[in-house]
Structures are given as structure tokens and as C-alpha cells.
Amino acid sequence: MLQLFACFDRALRKTLEWICILLFVAIALILTLNIVIRFLPLMSMHWFDEILELLYGALIFYGAATVWVTHSHFSVGDWISRHIASVRLRFVYRLIVELCSLAFIAIFFKYALDITLQTDEQTTAFAMSKKWLYVCMPITGGIMLLYSLKNMYLEMAKILKPELEIDLGREDLNH
């Protein structure tokens, strides 16, 4: 079961990384095209803002999910754990931090899903549903929710058996 999850984990990481790379390249190309069109007015770019909004939003949320999955997000560090003498209490503290993260992500996921499902608005240039602008939020929120649950599971396992010091999901971060 853990090996299956490890394979899924690697595949998801690679997928998220490639999504971010492709979104970044698309943004760079559209911005470059916009600059060229200003000097050589060959076509109208009335759709520029609409597509850029879609791409930037997706890049932000898929990027957030990527750093969440790989534990690459910046933080002030875990400077509290080293001051907790008991190994089990250290893992209880980390479990509480993970629980707070889970609560935040669960609230984000719920409201992101609500806004995606409830919107009836359409974009101006292409008259496409704004659901396409919002869909990246519940997708990435769901991914972060799953990984928060995984992290809580790992912290609970460490509380029960601190001598194992299992750290699945954080072992292959420098791939």
C-alpha cells in the first residue's frame, strides 16, 4: 500500500511540476506576443487579460499544491520542536500543526468548490464560463487536503512508534 502511494506521489509531483512549467511558458509566450503586437499591430489581443487571468490563477494554485506536496513552502522553520524534550510530545506538537493546516485547507476547499459550482458568470472576450477560471482552486485544494491527511497519518504513526521516525513523502525531495 505504501509503495503504491509512493508511486502515486512521484507521478503527482511530476505532473504538478509540468503543469507549472507549461503554465509559466504559456504566460511568457502571451506576454512576449503582447509586446510584439504593440510594435507590429498584426492582430487584436482583446482576449489578453482574460487568458492571462486564467493562466496566472492556475499557476498560483497549482504552484501552491506543488510546494504543499513536496514540503517546499517557505516557513520560519520548526524551531519549537527542538525545545520539546519528549519525542512523543514533539510529534504531538507537529500533529497539532498539521491539524491546523488541515482545517485551513478544508475551509479553502469547501469555499473553492462552492464558488466553482455556483458561478454562472461568463468571461467577456470568449464568453466561456468562469468555472474554468475557478476550477483550479478545488482541484488543488483537494490535492492539499489529501496530503494534509497523509501528513497527519504519518505524525500519528510517529506518536505511536517514535523510534521508527518514518518520514514518507519527505524522503525524495531533491529529485
UniProtKB/TrEMBL annotation:
Residues 27-154 form the Tripartite ATP-independent periplasmic transporters DctQ component domain. The chain crosses the membrane at residues 18-39, 51-70, 91-112, 132-149. Pfam families: DctQ. It is a multi-pass membrane protein. Keywords: Cell inner membrane, Cell membrane, Membrane, Transmembrane, Transmembrane helix, Transport. Belongs to the TRAP transporter small permease family. This is TRAP transporter small permease protein. The lineage of its organism: Bacteria, Pseudomonadati, Pseudomonadota, Betaproteobacteria, Rhodocyclales.
